[in-house]
Amino acid sequence: MFKYLVALLSFGLAIWTLPEWFSVGSCLLKPWLLQPTAGLLHQDVLALYNGNRSSKGLYLAILGQVFDVEKGRKHYGPDGGYRFFSGRDASRAFVTGDFSEAGLSDDVSDLSPSQIVALYDWLTFYEKEYTPVGRLIGRFYTERGEPTEALQQAEAHLTEGLKLKAQAEEENRVYPACNSEWSSAAGGRVWCSEKSGGVHRDWTGVPRMLFSPGSGRTRCVCVRLDDRTRSNNPHLRQYKDCPPHADSCLLSQD
Ligand code: HEM
């Protein structure tokens, strides 16, 4: 008798956990049978977690990583200002700010390296603030949970973006930006101070135009005249009608 009871219980348990066996890798089962806790979710399962009345909860995905954002229901719930992020991966919109249906896409292939850096900053935010649920099968993860080429490309752009960011920070340290002001009566003025460009330092420097060959643009930077190597940079130009040692220059109208 006991033997039959054990067999019956085992059979019952096996039937009960059946959906979990299939939640990784198979789309044959109806979405409502699939359990998200197994670590991999299909898009149609994620869509059930959009916070609507009949929904199973509140999830969103970014770069293929799924988070439970129930804690932020005021943002992501049906009445929240960011409800369109729920139940989907709209990675692209996190950096473009395009919240139209077309803009709420997971295609990040044409974003610039610096946009990809900003996107990973959002991912870090979700990792810190919300509970991870798993990975979304689709653009960034395969049926087996492996990173796709799209994710590898995003990661390569991240590396490049971080390098460019570090270079820009170093350039800003060496050539801090000037303060600037403009009024219709007095015109423009640029000047240097020991805090200009957000770089706290023990020197002031003099304003110079720094030409960026890549962008074709110029910006005002503060240059240490006692540092020969840096002040002799061929991409630096003096402001017209401004004495070479002045720490403030009026901008001519022409
Ligand atoms: C690319 C553009 C933007 C994106 C992707 C974005 C996204 C978000 C997201 C996802 C949240 C919720 C964060 C959380 O889970 O706590 C949030 C919160 C917030 N956003 Fe935005 N946002 C954007 C632009 C803006 C702009 C332009 C403003 C202001 C003019 C703004 C104001 C706010 C405020 C005030 C909150 C916090 C609300 C609160 O804590 O009650 N956002 N944003």
Automatic annotation (TrEMBL):
<dbReference type="GO" id="GO:0016020">
    <property type="term" value="C:membrane"/>
</dbReference>
<dbReference type="Pfam" id="PF00173">
    <property type="entry name" value="Cyt-b5"/>
</dbReference>
<dbReference type="GO" id="GO:0012505">
    <property type="term" value="C:endomembrane system"/>
</dbReference>
<feature type="domain" description="Cytochrome b5 heme-binding">
    <location>
        <begin position="40"/>
        <end position="137"/>
    </location>
</feature>
<dbReference type="InterPro" id="IPR050577">
    <property type="entry name" value="MAPR/NEUFC/NENF-like"/>
</dbReference>
<comment type="similarity">
    <text>Belongs to the cytochrome b5 family. MAPR subfamily.</text>
</comment>
<dbReference type="InterPro" id="IPR036400">
    <property type="entry name" value="Cyt_B5-like_heme/steroid_sf"/>
</dbReference>
<protein>
    <recommendedName>
        <fullName>Neuferricin</fullName>
    </recommendedName>
</protein>
<dbReference type="InterPro" id="IPR001199">
    <property type="entry name" value="Cyt_B5-like_heme/steroid-bd"/>
</dbReference>
<comment type="function">
    <text>Heme-binding protein which promotes neuronal but not astrocyte differentiation.</text>
</comment>
